[in-house]
Specification:
The structure is a homodimer of 217-residue chains. Chain A has 217 residues and is an alpha/beta fold. Chain A has helices spanning 10-21, 36-44, 57-62, 78-91, 107-112, 121-132, 138-146; strands at residues 3-6, 29-33, 48-51, 70-73, 97-100, 117-119, 150-158, 175-181, 184-187, 201-210. In chain A, the strands form two sheets. A six-stranded parallel β-sheet of chain A has the order 3-2-1-4-5-6, sandwiched between helices. In chain A, strands 7-10-8-9 form a four-stranded antiparallel β-sheet. The complex binds calcium ion (CA) (2 copies). One calcium ion is lined by residues 144, 147-150, 152-153, 208 of chain B. One calcium ion binds at residues 144, 147-150, 152-153, 208 of chain A.
Chain lengths: 217, 217
């Protein structure tokens, strides 16, 4: 029930820092990288480490990938990251795998390789740049929402028994923004949000964990 | 009253694509780059173009930077982007400037150089990677929120006269998530959000412009 992080470059490091900020025990994280220098950094954070090539079955079996809770793939090159994803998906059919790709053309192949979540930092930056021209707080709000620290954070959780039958707007834990029902999104303004059902997943904005100042906002 | 985009690499291109998706007239966009090939792409989109070095006063004066509505800086290198920001800030003291930096250490210098908004794609990717391990829809929701297309978008606007005195939760245009009052953030759960005041800026989630499928969500 551990988290496998493969590739400990800047994105991988930022991801682990945020996992620790969210309260993940570093002993539940296994970092795989081919560089001893990167692994020293990971070890200093208290993570488990393995020096190896994550495109090989052997390496992923060594970290018991089939028992992992989730996997983060950020190998620095899209081809490598996609091959790692394919390998991991083969060994662990139901594992949630999040991958970073740098080229938009590789987003679809990454999904086809079995990634659950595909993150394209360049594309995201472009969206935030454009958004910032129509409101100067937009990018800061997005950064706050993405991080667990600061004033707010985005949370995903199942609907609670006592919430079933009531509207999304009545949940007491935060501001409900979306429901996933049978994997289909339902917006806060839609009819489906008027009655929560058993099995619904709720996306909500809740108060953040504070501390980490989010860029002056 | 134009938007100046300096650096037409991948981030700059993504930003312009999103601006166009948001309905910006390409004739209101001026793209500056040193590469003819990049400028050909910008021209094909209908943007105005200028071949030049944006770290020089001369270049920025040629695009009438003091009359621009906003500026997007993504020169590919942090040192270059920061120098462009310094130069532009000197020529246009009140211009909103959004800058992309790749190294976390450069976020503060970028602000000190006068950037209004600092975007770090790598840091963002790390946050989204970490977030995706605690909910598999989190990253997709964030991507949808950042883009104007899809199901939702994040909007910033002044409070309307008829909204003054009422609570943030009562606005009819979307789901109010934050207020900026005298540049200070107020969360939807805070007392200050119970009565909107004249001059408040509202951050709200509204329905998106559709079409652009957001990664299977
Ligand atoms: Ca936050
Ligand atoms: Ca959207």
């Amino acid at each position: 029930n551990h988290i496998v992080v493969t590739g400990f470059g800047t994105s991988g490091q930022e991801a682990v820092n945020e996992l620790l900020a969210r309260g993940t025990d570093p002993r539940e994280i296994v970092v795989i990288d081919g560089s001893d220098k990167a692994l020293e950094l990971a070890e200093a954070l208290g993570c488990n480490i393995l020096c190896g090539d994550s495109t090989r079955d052997r390496t992923l079996k060594d970290v018991a990938i089939h028992r992992a809770r989730s996997m983060i793939v950020s190998a620095g090159r899209d081809d490598t990251s996609i091959l790692i994803t394919l390998t991991a998906r083969h060994l662990a059919p139901r594992l949630p795998i999040s991958i970073v790709v740098r080229n938009e053309d590789n987003e679809l192949p990454a999904r086809q390789a079995g990634a659950t979540t595909v993150i394209n930092p360049v594309s995201f930056a472009g969206l935030l740049l454009a958004g910032s021209t129509s409101g100067r707080h937009i990018a800061d709000y997005m950064a706050d929402l993405a991080a667990s620290g600061g004033r707010v954070k985005l949370n995903e959780r199942p609907a609670l028994p006592e919430e079933i039958g009531g509207p999304l707007s009545a949940i007491g834990t935060g501001l409900g923004v979306r429901i996933y029902r049978d994997d289909r999104p339902i917006g806060f303004w839609e009819d489906g949000a008027k009655r929560l059902q058993n099995g619904d997943l709720i996306i909500e904005i809740t108060e953040g964990d504070g501390d980490a100042p989010t860029d002056g906002s």
